[in-house]
Amino acid sequence: MIDKELPTAAEAVADVFDGATVMIGGFGEAGSPIELIHALIDQGASGLTVVNNNAGSGEVGLAALLKSGRVSKLICSYPRTAGSRVFPDLYRSGRIELELVPQGTLSERIRAGGAGIPAFFTPTAVGTPLQDGKETRTFDGRDYVMEHGLTADFALVKCSRADRHGNLVYNKTARNFGPVMATAATTTIVQASEIVDIGVLDPEAVVTPGIFVSRVVGVAEPALESELVARGVSYP
Amino acid sequence: MAKRAAFDIPDGAYVNLGIGIPELVAKYVPEGREVVYHTENGLLGMGPSPADGEGDPELINAGKRQITAVPGASYFHHADSFVMIRGGHIDICVLGAMQVSETGDLANWSTGSPDAIPAVGGAMDLVAGANAIRVVTQHCTRDGQPKLVEACSYPLTGAGVVKRVYTDLAVVDISGDGFQLVELAPGIDFEHVRDLTAAELRPLPN
User: Fold this and answer.
1) Which residue has the higher pLDDT, B116 or B137?
2) pLDDT tens-digit profile of B5-56?
3) Which residues of chain A have pLDDT under 70?
4) How far is the alpha carbon of A44 from chain B, nearest alpha carbon, in Å?
5) What pLDDT is recorded for position A108?
């Protein structure tokens, strides 16, 4: 029998190792797997490379993970967030490396990584500082820059409903990076607001098929980053 | 500016609006035109902000503000969203600018200051992939520096990508040979716009 459900977030992230690359879903707070991130802080792995579109806000979730000093590199498109000092302080003091990637190139690199494609050419960033040091080629008279596929050891993803096979559906724009990150990680760990019986999710409406998912944890009432920040919470 | 830009958006267009003044364009699209708004975090069919207390923190736009989804909307993941952008499926993208050059280069993501936190988001993808890039911006910066220039001094978002600029003073096209005036704002004369443009501006043909 296939049963990917684990009882706690702590058990789900127990084997994240020092130096691992961890993709973390979410666009701002929408889709941010905050309970999994907090479990990862508690777990203590360090020297991590984190892939996320942003750099968190306040001192909870992703920002708290950065603040813990366990992240040595961030691969990111937009690390500037109103109301967060954590990333700017780390960056300006040279305590974190930043690889800045255009948002569409970031999602395509993850998609390519998940699809077994080592590199691809895109016109995005041609003629800008973000093409520096990268191979370029001309196809049909237009210049393109080569970008590498991106894979990870772990992905942390939030969804609204899952079953024990790891089939997932999401909530509105919280879907964002979840489905692509799930394909690109060796071990994909999901927190679901609800775990339903097999057969409940309409196969026509499943967004992430279970083959891409390794573990599922039920988190019935996930915290909202903005509410925690508004209350001045600092994790841990 | 936003109203004038909205006037040029045709019925049936798929449109991505940048953060800030470009967001206002949606308010001014003339009656009778059906326009579908794309937000790159994963929604086609973006509607206005929700009523107080009725929003969902997981239904947001690219500026991370709460929005609504109109009837006929669809959600999708990030890679699909950028397939729409990078694959040339978005008809029009309206963006803000720090500088636009006479060859259509756009700078709108960084001043290049060593102290700034670099952040690019989806701007480079939009200018490389959307079919028509239009810019809505004040003609000059807050301290009076022209934003329409011969060559951008800030790092580029994309080279040769902008086709039309809507400012508080004029509508200007970028053609093969520089800035071409299309229209003056009410009460503005050509000489005034020319003086505030740091590159040659060709007048309306007689």
Assistant:
1) B137
2) 999 999 999 999 998 888 889 999 999 999 999 999 999 999 999 999 899 9
3) none
4) 27
5) 98
The CA–CA distances, whole Å, from B18 to B55, B92, B108, B135 equal 21, 11, 11, 9
B19 touches chain A (CB under 8 A): no
In three-state secondary structure terms, B80 is helix
A95 part of a folded domain: yes
The catalytically annotated residue of B40, B54, B183, B191 is B40
DSSP 8-state assignment for residue B8 = T
In the predicted model, what is the mean pLDDT of residues B113-137? 94
**Domains identified in chain B, total number:** 1
Nearest CA in chain A to B128: A124
The model's pLDDT over B28-40, given as tens digits with 9 standing for 90+, comes to: 999 999 999 999 9
Considering CB atoms only, which of B75, B110, B125 is closest to A173? Answer: B75
pLDDT at B114: 83
Secondary structure (3-state) at A91: helix
Q: The CATH number of the domain where B106 resides is what?
A: 3.40.1080.10
Contact A229, A60 (CB under 8 A): yes
Residue type, B29: V
Locate the chain B residue with the closest alpha carbon to A121: B86
pLDDT the model gives residue A81: 79
Q: Say if B141 is an interface residue toward chain A (CB within 8 Å).
A: no
- List the domain range (segments joined by +) for residue A209: 5-118+150-230
> Is-catalytic flag, B31?
no
Could you tell me if residue A133 is inside a domain? no
**Any domain includes A130:** no
d(CA B111, CA A80): 14
Q: Which residue of A has its CA nearest to B41?
A: A176
Q: CATH code at A48?
A: 3.40.1080.10
Q: Which residues of B touch A178 (CB under 8 A)?
A: 77
DSSP letter for B131, please. S
CB A207 to CB B115 under 8 A? Answer: no
